[in-house]
């Protein structure tokens, strides 16, 4: 009988302490999982936005190559400035005031072109180029919204009259 009296079971304090440790560990794992998922989604959207901006630069180059004159290209691109969303379609047509494409997880993508003088060392400069210039800087900014928060990618290239 003495052996049975000396054996003690798990007390209430030990059970509550064990549950507390388990809750802290599970909460940390869930928070880490949510953070990882959010970061992964944002990176996927950033890669897709960068891809779209680069694609628009290539389409702008093709748009230049299909115009009859340099002046036609420059005046067409000058119609799109920072305040007007526009993009070049795969058929090499300049379309304005329209969303480019939906990115899964985003609320639409808007592309803005800016045409500036190549001789300016500041790629962020939004001065409209002189229509007689032999070189223009085409800037593309792809913008999208994620959960009410704006995101964007900015790429630029210099195109010359050749």
What would you report as the Rg, rounded to the nearest angstrom? 28 Å
Spatial sequence of strands, sheet with the most strands: 3-4-5
SSE pattern: HHHEEEEE
Strand content: 15-25%
- Tell how many strands the DSSP assignment holds: 5
Low-confidence stretches: none
Care to describe what's here?
- Helices cover 43% and strands 24% of the residues.
- The protein contains 3 helices and 5 strands.
- The strands form 2 sheets. The chain has a 3-stranded antiparallel beta sheet. A two-stranded antiparallel ribbon has the order 1-2.
- The longest helix is centred in the N-terminal third of the chain and has 55 residues, at 12-66.
- It is rod-shaped, with a radius of gyration of 28 Å.
- The termini are far apart.
- 22% of the residues are buried.
- The model has no long low-confidence stretch (mean pLDDT 78).
């Amino acid at each position: 009988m003495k052996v049975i009296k000396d054996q003690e079971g798990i007390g209430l304090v030990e059970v509550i302490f064990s549950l507390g440790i388990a809750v802290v560990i599970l909460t940390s794992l869930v928070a880490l999982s949510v953070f990882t998922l959010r970061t992964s989604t944002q990176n996927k959207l950033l890669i897709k936005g960068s891809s779209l901006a680069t694609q628009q630069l290539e389409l702008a180059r093709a748009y230049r190559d299909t115009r009859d004159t340099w002046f036609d290209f420059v005046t067409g691109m000058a119609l799109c400035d920072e305040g007007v969303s526009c993009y070049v379609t795969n058929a090499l047509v300049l379309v304005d005031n329209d969303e480019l494409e939906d990115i899964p997880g985003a609320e639409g993508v808007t592309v803005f072109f800016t045409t500036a003088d190549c001789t300016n060392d500041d790629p962020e400069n939004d001065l409209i180029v002189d229509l007689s210039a032999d070189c223009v800087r085409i800037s593309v900014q792809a913008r999208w919204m994620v959960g009410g928060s704006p995101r964007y990618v900015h790429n630029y290239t210099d195109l010359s009259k050749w």
